[in-house]
Design a protein that fits this description.
Length: 303
C-alpha cells in the first residue's frame, strides 16, 4: 500500500510520541503536487446540488487536462486540414470571393486562438466554431449542394465530445444563424436549385434535423456522466478504505510504542529497587558487613 494515506492520517490525527510520518507531513501548500491534483479532481465535479429541471440537464463527464489535450489535438488537426482542402476545391471549381477567402482567414485565426487561449472552454469554442465555418465554406464551394450539409452533421459530434455546453451551443447556434441568414439572402450558396423557390422551408427542415441531432448528442452525455459518477464513487471508496487501513496501522504502531515505553519503565523501576538493597550490605567505609564474607578493600578470597 502506498505511504500517502498513512502520512495523510498521521497529519490529520496529530501523531504523538515523536513518530515520523515522512516527507508528506509538510504543510498542505508544500505537499507533493500529485496528491493535491487528486483532491481537486474529486472536488471539481460534485454529484449533488442539483434538483428539479436542472437534474435532467446533462452535463457530461468533466475531461481532465490529459483527456482534453488529446481530444483537442484531434479537433484542431481536423480544422487545420480544412484550409488546404477548401483552398484546393475552390481553385479547382473556380470559386473565390470573400465567402471563401474571408472565411478561410477566419478559420486560420480560430486555429491560432484554439492553441494560444488559456481556458479549455475558450479553446474548445474557438475550434468548434471554426469547424462549423469550415462546413459552411464546403457547402459554398460545392455550389450549395444540399448533400454537402451532411458535413455539418458529421462535425457536430466532434464538438459534442468536449462535453461542454459553451462550445456545443456556439456550434449549434452558428448552424442555425447561418442557415437562416444564407437561406434568405443568398440561397444559391447553401441550397440546391430546387430549394431556391422556397428556401425558408428548407431552412426549417435543416434546423429541425440539427436540433434533433444536438438533443441526441447532449442526451448521450448522461451516460458518460453516470459512468464518471460511478468511477468517482469507486475512487472515493478506495481512498476511504486506504485511509481506514492506514489509521488502523497507525493506531497499532502507537499501541506498540506505548507497550514498549511501559515495558522500559517497568524494567527501569525494577532496576532502581534492586540497587538500594545491595547498598544496605555496605559499611560507611565501603566494607560489607561481616556476614558478607569480604570487604571492598581486601582481596577476594580464593574460590
Amino acid at each position: 500500500m502506498s505511504g500517502a494515506p498513512v502520512t495523510a492520517v498521521a497529519a490529520a490525527t496529530g501523531v504523538r510520541r515523536g513518530i515520523r510520518t515522512g516527507p508528506d507531513s509538510t504543510p498542505p501548500d508544500r505537499q507533493p503536487k500529485r496528491r493535491r491534483d487528486t483532491t481537486q479532481l474529486s472536488a471539481a465535479h460534485p454529484d449533488d446540488g442539483r434538483g428539479g429541471f436542472w437534474a435532467a440537464v446533462p452535463r457530461g463527464a468533466q475531461l481532465d487536462a490529459r483527456s482534453f489535450a488529446a481530444h483537442h489535438r484531434v479537433t484542431t488537426a481536423v480544422l487545420v486540414a480544412h484550409v488546404p482542402a477548401l483552398t484546393l476545391i475552390g481553385l479547382v471549381r473556380g470559386v473565390g470571393g470573400w465567402l471563401l477567402w474571408g472565411q478561410l482567414a477566419v478559420i486560420a485565426v480560430l486555429v491560432v486562438l484554439g492553441v494560444v487561449l488559456r481556458g479549455q472552454v475558450a479553446r474548445a469554442s474557438a475550434v468548434g466554431l471554426g469547424l462549423m465555418i469550415g462546413a459552411d465554406v464546403l457547402v459554398h464551394v460545392g455550389g450549395g449542394l444540399t448533400d454537402l450539409h451532411i458535413w455539418f452533421y458529421a462535425l457536430l459530434p466532434l464538438v459534442a465530445l468536449y462535453q461542454m455546453w459553451t462550445p456545443f451551443l456556439v456550434a449549434v447556434g452558428f448552424v442555425a444563424v447561418h442557415h437562416a441568414a444564407a437561406g434568405i439572402w443568398v440561397p444559391e450558396s447553401v441550397f440546391s436549385p430546387h430549394a431556391h423557390d422556397d428556401p425558408l422551408a428548407f431552412v426549417a427542415l435543416h434546423a429541425v434535423f440539427v436540433l434533433i441531432e444536438a438533443t441526441f448528442l447532449a442526451y448521450g452525455w448522461k451516460f458518460a456522466e453516470r459512468l464518471d459518477r460511478d468511477r468517482r464513487a469507486q475512487q472515493r471508496m478506495a481512498e476511504e478504505q486506504q485511509v481506514a487501513q492506514a489509521r488502523a496501522e497507525l493506531e497499532l504502531a502507537e499501541e506498540r510504542a506505548r507497550a514498549a515505553d511501559e515495558a522500559a519503565r517497568q524494567a527501569q523501576e525494577r532496576g532502581g529497587a534492586c540497587r538500594p538493597a545491595r547498598r544496605a550490605h555496605l559499611r560507611p567505609g565501603g566494607r560489607r558487613t561481616p556476614d558478607a564474607g569480604w570487604t571492598a578493600t581486601s582481596p577476594r578470597p580464593p574460590r
